[in-house]
């Protein structure tokens, strides 16, 4: 393909530029320096050709300038997403906060906008770092962060994570008061954890105080960050690992097993005591009640016998013979009421030939028989 036939190469025939036809390299002997005044004049003539009636003048230039200003001002429109807030700056100074939606600020270079995300939950790890590979997820321990001194002068290895968000109402504090948020929050978290751990003994830390530790660290972190004006809300402090140092963990587990055996034996003893003691107390109460009832019965019987004796004595003084006879008969009645009786009329025995016979063998058998 012959480009010369296209009148100016593969892009088609040459078209005149808006400044007119440039100087031609001709036979007058090489190129010459362009006259800038001529170029400016030709440009003005070209602009005038676009104006109505060929008259551009100052009015046309003013319209162009006004349009440029309008376009520049319109470039100050911006959109804030639902998870963001807008921080308006004028000459680098904070002047206000805007909410999600269409907003406006003076355009660059006078104004600018910073749009931090206030709904994102950020996680700061202390004592370890998570690393995600292609096939599995692992973590790397950092002993310089995780080893902490307890209140009873032991060492404990603690890994924990802190979840936090930017406070929407104080987003400007987060942007302007903290240069490195992750580093600052990690330092505050580590310091708060060391302070809380330093007030507890290792046994409580490893067993019953995990929830209390998380709550105390969260509260202390929030107080410190508010003092710094960080514009951050601490959502959660979660303990990942709480162990003795790796060098002594086996010995510590042996101690823990011994303590568990001790606790189990104590619990069994307390269970047995809680069962036996009430039974013993109940038995003692029963015996005491029976003794009191026996005492009352004996006293009542004795009182009754004494009263009866006094009454009999009174009657005896009135009629001694009759009273003796009555007492004799009552005594015989009481004695003979439950025994076998054989009555022999002595007067008639001599006449009828009855021989008195006492069966001693039968009495001995009855006496030896179990009742």
Summarize the structure in words:
With 371 residues, the chain is of the alpha+beta class. Among the domains are: 77-114, no CATH class; 122-244, Tetrahydropterin Synthase, Chain A (2-Layer Sandwich), CATH 3.30.479. The chain has helices spanning 36-50, 57-74, 143-146, 171-177, 181-197, 202-206, 210-228, 249-318, 320-336, 346-352, 360-368, and strands at 77-80, 86-90, 93-98, 101-104, 111-114, 122-126, 128-132, 137-141, 147-149, 155-166, 232-243. A hairpin with a 5-residue loop joins strand 9 and strand 10. It is rod-shaped, with a radius of gyration of 58 Å. Residues 1-31 have low confidence and may be disordered.
Quick summary of this structure?
With 371 residues, the protein is α+β, with helices and mostly antiparallel strands. 51% of the residues lie in helices and 18% in strands.
List the helices and strands and how they pair.
Layout: H1 36-50, H2 57-74, E1 77-80, E2 86-90, E3 93-98, E4 101-104, E5 111-114, E6 122-126, E7 128-132, E8 137-141, H3 143-146, E9 147-149, E10 155-166, H4 171-177, H5 181-197, H6 202-206, H7 210-228, E11 232-243, H8 249-318, H9 320-336, H10 346-352, H11 360-368
Antiparallel strand pairs: 1-4, 2-3, 2-5, 6-10, 7-8, 9-10, 10-11
Helix pairs in contact: 5-7, 8-9
